[in-house]
């Protein structure tokens, strides 16, 4: 189960990283800035992709409405994700290293926001890519799109849970 709203595993993982860095905060800063830079770039790519899918080839009015709503939502959420990620990267880069863990603890509830927005934007992109085509193509690619989305979401949740569980379990075993 993917624990989206649980801050404790995230804080524990950052605490472990901070302890391995002798509480200097340099590794936390480096990892966070890279993470949010990647999210910013990905948000830009998703937004560009959604903008380039300007008109669906489909003529069904309902599909056009779903397509336009999904496209608009994806564009707005990818811009919002980039905005939040850039703010995080800039402010984390400007903060003193010695305060990194306190910043992580305080902002922990907000740290997943850009990732959740990216996943939602990617979902919008998948929907738009699927609805872009006319039948019978749409019938062929819809199951592929659904499988791709579900598998990606499963992989993210699996890997995230594994990362937290195994890393934190190993760190507890190392403590005498």
Largest sheet: none
Question: Count the strands?
Answer: 0
The SSE order reads HHHHHH
Sum up the overall morphology in one term.
elongated
Provide the helix percentage.
over 70%
Q: What is the rounded distance between the termini?
A: 30 Å
Overall pLDDT score? 87
Helix/strand/pairing category: mainly alpha
Beta-strand fraction estimate: under 5%
Q: In DSSP terms, counting alpha (H) and pi (I) runs of 4 or more, how many helices? A: 6
The parts where pLDDT drops under 50 for at least 5 residues are none
Instruction: Kindly provide the radius of gyration, computed on alpha-carbon positions and rounded to a whole number of angstroms.
Output: 19 Å
Domain module tally: 1
State the gist of this model:
With about 180 residues, the protein is mainly α.
Give structural notes.
The structure is a single chain. The chain is mainly alpha-helical. It has one domain. It is 81% helix and 0% strand. The chain contains six helices and no strands. α1 packs antiparallel against α4 and α5 runs antiparallel to α6. The longest helix has 38 residues. The chain is elongated. The two termini are 30 Å apart. The relative contact order is 0.16.
């Amino acid at each position: 189960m993917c624990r989206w709203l649980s801050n404790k595993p995230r804080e524990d993982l950052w605490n472990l990283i901070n302890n391995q860095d002798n509480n200097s905060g340099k590794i936390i800063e480096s990892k966070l800035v890279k993470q949010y830079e990647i999210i910013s770039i990905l948000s830009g790519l998703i937004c560009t992709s959604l903008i380039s899918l300007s008109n669906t080839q489909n003529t069904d009015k309902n599909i056009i409405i779903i397509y336009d709503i999904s496209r608009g939502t994806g564009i707005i959420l990818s811009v919002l994700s980039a905005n939040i990620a850039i703010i995080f990267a800039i402010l984390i880069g400007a903060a003193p290293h010695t305060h990194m863990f306190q910043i992580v603890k305080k902002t922990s509830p907000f740290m997943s926001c850009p990732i959740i927005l990216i996943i939602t934007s990617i979902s919008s992109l998948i929907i738009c890519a699927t609805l872009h085509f006319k039948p019978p193509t749409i019938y062929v690619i819809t199951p592929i799109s659904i499988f791709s989305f579900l598998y990606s979401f499963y992989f993210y949740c699996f890997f995230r849970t594994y990362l937290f569980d195994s890393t934190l379990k190993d760190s507890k075993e190392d403590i005498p």
